[in-house]
Specification:
11% helix, four-stranded mixed β-sheet, mainly beta, globular
Length: 133
């Protein structure tokens, strides 16, 4: 995982959804700024926990279990302010308020953990570049 997270080589995982049966994609957005913080997954149990706690609980596809965001490692928890459902009821948007410093366990070029989108695709030369600023 580390090599993918820090790589500048583009290696998109087009098979990811094959392993995510019984879960829905969730876009997690900052309720105030509307910044997209991450795309993750939820299942029925994670959604129930999110509603019960009013905090971000997801389904970790890599661990195969519930992921209480911020509780285990980073300390970056999130209060869920609103949950939006798309027209086909097959994806969600969670509007959240950060209770810690960021969302991602990795660091961007400035050493911060603000969101999971810290690289961009160089559309001219290919590969990935770290975003500064």
């Amino acid at each position: 995982m580390q090599s993918i997270e820090e790589a500048t080589e583009l290696r998109l995982d087009f098979e990811k959804l094959d392993a995510v049966r019984g879960a829905l994609p969730v876009a997690v957005q900052d309720a105030k700024t509307r910044e997209v913080l991450l795309i993750a997954y939820t299942n029925a149990e994670a959604l129930r926990e999110t509603l019960r706690l009013r905090q971000l609980v997801l389904y970790s596809t890599s661990r195969g279990r519930l992921w209480y965001k911020g509780a285990e490692e980073s300390g970056n928890a999130f209060r869920v302010e609103e949950i939006r459902v798309n027209c086909e009821q097959n994806s969600l948007v969670y509007l959240v308020t950060p209770l810690g410093g960021g969302i991602c366990h990795t660091q961007n070029a400035e050493g911060k953990h603000r969101n999971c989108y810290y690289r961009r695709l160089n559309m001219d030369r290919g590969g990935l570049e770290f975003i500064v600023g």
